[in-house]
Amino acid sequence: MTKTESAYKKRADGRKFDELRPVIAKVGVVPSADGSAMYQSGKTRALAVVRGPRLLHPKHLENPEKGILRVTYQMMSFSVWDRIKPGNSRRGQEIGKVSEWALNEIVDLDAFPNSVVDVIIQIPQADAGTRVAGLNAAAMALAQAGVPMREMLSAVAVGKMDRTLVVDVDKEEEDFEDGEGATDIPIGITSRTKKIALLQLDGKISIPELRESISMAKKACEKINEVQMKALKEPGKEIKG
Ligand code: UDP
Fold first, then answer.
1. How confident is the model over 106-162, as pLDDT tens digits?
2. How is residue 60 annotated by DSSP?
3. How far, rounded to the nearest angstrom, does the alpha carbon of residue 215 sit from its chain's CA centroid?
């Protein structure tokens, strides 16, 4: 093997390197919520529910200038084979926080001082990429709730398996160990201004590879955005992509 040849030559599930897993999106999955949506990529499924804007308690968190977003993220106990302990976890708190920062790029809560919009993300089934699936569901749920938004958000995890860049990594790929191993790069892109609203990196990567990952994510996010928009036009219908 030459120095530049990658140990990752073919994806286990036969996908092309820039191909998403089969996508299903549905808006309006929890009728009692102000907005709700489901986003599924392969075996990873995320649900998002939105409540608000409404007055914020506890009061000391209030912002008199504008409304705030409060995002929580949780994996359900049997979302993976090893049962997940219910309740708060450090990982859940981190993902809630980065999701909040990403969604703050698209919502406009200036007209709602002292108020909160709660976004609750639940993962009933996990096969990697749950934070990005959660963001895709949350953006749809916020739009359905009628929360003022400057634009939409779509997100995908790009992976570097040894030296090969692939879009929408699954768990088996995330666990790839040969060569340089696997690097997971969840990326969120806003629909109109193409801003990077989320970028995390777990592993090692060169600057040219990171640039290429972002451009792969942008293309993938355009496809995801099409599915999200179709789902928003037909609440209650499963849209496949
Ligand atoms: N995972 C798991 N148990 C956990 C946390 C994660 O089995 O307690 C699995 C799950 O499939 C998840 C994947 O590991 O999707 C990758 O987790 P990571 O923290 O990288 O976040 P994600 O890729 O889901 O955004």
1. 999 999 999 999 999 999 999 999 999 999 999 999 999 999 999 999 999 999 999
2. G
3. 17
Q: Which atom of ligand 1 has the smallest separation from the CA of 127?
A: 11
What would the two tokens of residue 174 be? 């995330």
Residues in the chain: 241
- The structure's pTM equals 0.97
pLDDT in tens, 175-222: 999 999 999 999 999 999 999 999 999 888 999 999 999 999 999 999
Instruction: Choose the residue to mutate in 44, 130, 169, 183 for probing ligand 1, maximizing ligand atoms within 8 Å of C-beta.
Output: 130
Tokens of 76: 């359900």
The dihedrals phi and psi of 29, each to the nearest 5 degrees, come to: -100, -15
Which ligand 1 atom lies nearest to the CA of residue 202? Answer: 20
- CB atoms < 10 A from the CB of 109, how many? 21
Q: Which domains does the chain have, with CATH numbers?
A: 23-233 (3.30.230.70)
Nearest to 101 by CA among 128, 122, 71, 130: 71
